[in-house]
Each structure stands twice: as C-alpha cells, then as structure tokens.
Design goal:
The complex is a heterodimer. Chain A is of the alpha/beta class. Chain A has 6 helices and 6 strands. Chain A is 60% helix and 15% strand. In chain A, helix 1 packs antiparallel against helix 6. Chain B is an alpha+beta fold. The chains are: A alpha/beta, B alpha+beta.
Chain lengths: 292, 136
C-alpha cells in the first residue's frame, strides 16, 4: 500500500487539477452564453437571406453571376473549421476525422484544404495535405471581417479556377451538450438551390417588380449571402466549441471529485492502519517490560 | 384597422428588429423611396441608406435608420433584410456624432491614402442616424 505521504500528495495534485477544470468550465460557460446568443440571433437572417436568394435564382439567368454556375469538378476545396484550443473533448478530433474521411471519398478529384482554427491548421500542416489557405487563431476575437476576408479569398480562388467546388465542414451547435458535424457546399451556390423548387406558397409563379433590376439584386445578394453564411458557420463552430469544452470540463471536474473520494478513503485506511500498528507496538512493548 | 394590416418582418444580422402587423411601410429604395400598403404587388427592391417608416395596427408611427439591404413584398408579407436597422429611440446619438465628425475630418484632409468612398458612405450613415434620431 502506498504511504500516507504519497497519498496526501496525490490528493493535493488532483484537487489542484480540479480547481483548474472547474475554472475552465466557468469560463466556457460564460463564453458559451455569449456565443449562443450570437448564433441564435444570426440564424434567422441567414435563413431568410438564403431563402430569398434561392427563390430569386429560379427567376433569373444563373449566368448573371459566375458564382451561381457549376462546372466540371476537378479540384475541391475543403474548408475545415476547428477550434483554436484543445481541452474540449472530442470536438477537434471528430471534425478532423470527418474531414479526412471526406477527403478520402473524393476519389479521383484533386483536393485542397483550407483550415480555420489553430488545431486543424496544425494537424493538416504537418501531414501530406495540400493546405492552400490557413487561418489559425481567430476565435478569441471573432469579427465579421474575418468571415468577409475568408469569403474573399475563397471566391478569388474559385473565380481564378484554382478549385471548382468549395465545401465547408464544421460543427453545428445543436445544444449545449450536442454538436453535429455538417458538410455544406459553399460554391457554386448549390444546384438544388438554383433549380426551381416547388415552393409551397407558389412563389416561383409570381412575377416580381424588381428595383433596380433582377441582375443587380442578384449581384448584391450573392456576396452578402456568402459572407453571412461564413459568418454563421464561424459562430456555429464557436458556440459548439464552448459547449463541448464546458461538457468536457464538467466531466473532468466530476472525475476528479470521484478520484479525491477514493484517495481520501485510501488515505484514511492507511492512517488507521498505521495508528493500529503503532498502538500494537506500544502495547506489546509495555507488556514485554512488565514481564521482565 | 385590421383589414388594412399586413405582416412585416425586419431582420438584421444581429437580431429580429421588428415582427408584427402593420398598415403602412415605407423604405428608401435605390431608385427612389416607396411605400407599401396592403395588397401591394410582389416587389423585390434594394434599399439604400435612409429612413424606414412604419405604422402599426394601433396607428403608432415608428422610424428606423437603416444602412441598406433588400425588401421583399409578396402575398401581404413584407420581409426586410437590412445590414442595420435601429429604431429612432435606440440610436446611439453620441456614437453617430463621433462617426460624423470622424468622416468629415477624413474628407476634409484630402490625403491621398484616404478611402473617400468609404468615408463618404460613413458620413451618410452617420447623418442618417442623426436625422432619424431627432424625429422623436
């Protein structure tokens, strides 16, 4: 059995770890609340903008904007959104695993990778992947300008023909304890969206008055839509990360508590055993003296 | 009043600014301001920096400062997607004044490295906010 001193040492160590995990949980909880607010309030706008654009492209010539037109896919760009920091359970490893799977299943198509978040940048940077764009460390102070500059880089590459399709893989914030890995096609703006859909309200049959013109409205909406989708994705991932971290740290704190309980029990056992042993020694010593 | 009412939603990236029944809605379209009443024809319009006015079912008028976006009118539902939309009593006047002064200074300096278009747009936005805010 371990000595008293050793056990006491371990208890102190685990207690200190528990303090840290507890503090991290608090921080994550505070960040989560803000992140959750941000994503929840951003969703309606993103959805409505998507709806409007989807509907609009059924009315106008898609050739008006090159970002709407699909072409033969020779190179795919996969945008992988991870966190900047670890200690959030399987958040990063799950997304990286899913991303690798996605890259493998592309078959003959060449793949390029764009990483957002330090963890993914480190992982893909060290391995044999064609990382064309990387952006580590943005989540600490996330700004709309980040989303805008990412979209600009992506659209430039797309228009120059460096890649023919852009997909984003990220963690969607479902609830505090649940993240869902989602793959979305960013460019060209997906085909099922550009085809006339049977809208329940029969919208596609309506003739709109366009001010100034349908082409101009499309050209205004497309970049806005892309920027905002990217922004939404960043917010989703951020909220999901904080949620994952909070759960992970909560589990860690709980585990530490159990460990401390076990160790305390062991400590008390050992202490009792040593007291008993000492008593026995004293008593038998006294007996021996009496007998002489 | 109710028979003249239609649904209006004003949504910005930050939040849903307004959602409810109104009887009149006016917005600054890029080819000129327009007003929407019940049974308006389907319309899709870009809007620019300016003032949005609406009258709710109780007859109360509200003013919003917006910095551009799109408006869709269809089947007595109006959807306004704007980059910003602030109700007149929510406008941060001090910030708008600071933005106005900053933009004016930039424009006055006439330095070559100043992005004049951006400064001018910033000035428009600030002036618009102040204008809407003063109509309380």
């Amino acid at each position: 059995m371990a000595t008293l001193r050793e056990i006491r040492h371990r208890i102190t160590g685990v207690t200190n770890t528990q303090k840290i995990t507890k503090a991290m949980k608090m921080v994550a909880a505070a960040r989560l609340r803000r992140a959750q607010e941000a994503i929840v309030s951003a969703r309606p706008y993103a959805r409505k903008l998507g709806e409007l654009l989807r509907h609009l492209v059924t009315k106008v010539d898609v050739n008006l904007n090159p970002l709407l037109v699909g072409r033969e896919t020779r190179t795919v760009l996969l945008v992988v959104v991870t966190a900047d920091r670890g200690l959030c359970g399987s958040f990063n490893s799950n997304i990286i695993k899913a991303a690798i799977q996605r890259l493998k299943t592309q078959g003959d198509v060449a793949t390029q990778v764009m990483t957002i978040g330090r963890k993914g940048t480190e992982f893909f940077g060290k391995r044999k992947y064609d990382v064309v764009l990387k952006h580590p460390g943005i989540f600490l102070d996330l700004e709309f300008d980040h989303a805008r500059s990412f979209v600009q880089e992506i659209t430039e590459g797309y228009l120059e023909g460096r890649f023919d399709k852009v997909e984003v893989i990220y963690n969607e914030f479902k609830s505090v304890i649940q993240q869902r890995i989602v793959v979305e096609q960013l460019l060209p703006i997906p085909a099922e969206e550009t085809q006339p859909s049977k809208d329940s309200k029969g919208r596609s049959l309506v003739d709109y008055i366009y001010e100034p013109s349908s082409a101009e409205i499309v050209n205004v909406l497309v970049p806005r839509h892309l920027n905002f989708q990217m922004w939404r994705i960043l917010l989703e991932s951020n909220a999901a990360e904080q949620g994952a971290r909070m759960t992970a740290m909560d589990n860690a704190t709980e585990n530490a508590r159990e460990l401390i309980r076990d160790l305390t029990l062991k400590f008390n056992n050992a202490r009792q055993a040593s007291i008993t042993k000492e008593l026995l020694e004293i008593v038998s010593g006294a007996e021996a003296l009496k007998a002489s | 009043m109710a028979e003249k009412a239609f649904k209006l939603e004003i949504v910005t990236p930050k939040r849903v600014v307004f959602s409810g029944e109104v009887t009149s809605f006016s917005a600054p379209g890029v080819v000129g301001g327009f007003q929407v009443l019940k049974n308006h024809a389907p319309l899709l319009s870009s809007i620019e920096v300016g003032e949005v006015k609406l009258v709710d079912v109780a007859g109360t008028e509200s003013h919003f400062a917006t910095s551009g976006g799109v408006v869709e009118v269809h089947d007595n539902k109006v959807m306004m997607l704007a980059e910003t939309a602030e109700r007149s009593d929510e406008i941060d006047v001090v910030r708008a004044q600071a933005a106005r002064d900053r933009a004016r200074k930039l424009l006055a300096e006439k330095k070559s490295d100043v992005d004049f278009d951006r400064a001018r747009i910033a000035l428009f936005r600030a002036l618009n906010r102040l204008k809407v805010a003063n109509q309380l």
